[in-house]
Design brief:
The complex is a heterodimer of chains A (196) and B (112). Chain A contains 8 helices and no strands. In chain A, helix 3 packs across helix 4, helix 6 crosses helix 8 and helix 7 crosses helix 8. Classes of the chains: A mainly alpha (196), B mainly alpha (112).
Chain lengths: 196, 112
């Protein structure tokens, strides 16, 4: 279907859902479930927790629908809700698990990314997924929202409750850590060619 | 041994976004430093691969839609809005009946 048709269908569904039409909202959930779940997985890494996040996000969206003015696209709006829910749930889960929330990245050597795997020219996708999983939640959230979802620093800062400067610093750290995990050295100043 | 400009240049490289370039002395340095050029390639590739991941979708678990629907149906806010909607509908119906009664009465009065 052409984009315009899809958008107008979505607008119709949104209008009906705003008036309390559960069937219309269910259709929106069906259309966005994979997108929302994917974002949740990227943010919290745990698939079970991500399913909870996705469900809670849609329920919150349903409750907040009367206030949704439609000046943003539904996908943008539901993404923001998902980030918010993921952040809350992750914090709660972290409290229960008593896991420290490191600002620093985990040891790349511990993550099973071998130098052979990280060789130039090889497909980076699985390595990158693994490397993302090793970032601290704070760093991962910023790099996911910026580099995968193209959010602005201001949007990220607003949604994560941090300053724009902090968002920039975290993005910088996250990229450096990813780069170090993918290409071995940590500070980006080592001569990789000189390594065995 | 790295040039003293390598460090600030690589710090900047990690912060660049798509379409952005190094500027000033860092740009001049990168133009002549092969290591920094290699770093630039790595960061470009990293950004490209990250952007590519944005298009990868993890299929939602089966039953998510049903779970959402169930949660909505037992949501107190939903129950409240249903009551509100029912109230609005009843008020609307009452208004229609009242208006109809007025019209009928006027016609009857006119006929008399």
């Amino acid at each position: 279907l052409p984009v315009r048709t899809v958008r107008s269908e979505e607008t119709g569904l949104l209008g009906r859902a705003r008036e309390g039409d559960v069937a219309a909202f269910t259709q929106l959930v069906s259309e966005y479930q994979h997108e929302v779940y994917t974002l949740a997985v990227r943010l919290v890494k745990d698939r079970d927790l991500a399913a909870d996040v996705a469900q809670e996000s849609f329920v919150r969206a349903w409750r907040a629908l009367p206030k949704f003015r439609g000046d943003a696209r539904f996908s943008t709006w539901i993404h923001r809700i998902t980030v918010n829910v993921a952040w809350t749930q992750r914090r709660r889960a972290a409290r229960h698990d008593a896991q420290p929330l490191h600002e620093l990245y985990a040891d790349p050597q511990a993550g099973g990314i071998s130098p052979e795997q990280a060789a130039y020219g090889a497909s980076l996708r699985p390595l990158l997924e693994a490397a993302l999983g090793q970032l601290s939640p704070h760093l991962r959230a910023v790099v996911v929202l910026k580099d995968l979802y193209d959010w602005s620093h201001a949007e990220i800062a607003d949604e994560l409750g941090i300053s724009v400067t902090a968002a920039k610093v975290r993005l910088h750290r996250a990229r450096r850590n990813l780069r170090a995990m993918l290409w071995e050295d940590r500070d980006g100043l080592l001569d990789t060619e000189a390594r065995p | 041994v790295n040039d003293p400009m390598c460090w600030p240049t690589r710090v900047s490289l990690a912060s660049l976004n798509g379409g952005e370039e190094l500027t000033g002395r860092r740009r001049e340095h990168a133009a002549t430093c092969l290591r920094c050029q290699a770093e630039a390639v790595k960061y470009r590739r990293l950004r490209r691969e990250l952007a590519g991941l944005g298009g990868v979708v993890a299929p939602a678990p089966r039953g998510l839609v049903a779970a959402v629907l169930q949660a909505i149906e037992r949501d107190p806010a939903q129950a409240e809005s249903q009551v509100r909607r029912a109230g609005v509908a009843a008020a609307g119906a009452a208004a229609v009946v009242a208006a109809g009664t007025v019209v009928v009465l006027r016609r009857l009065r006119g006929a008399a």
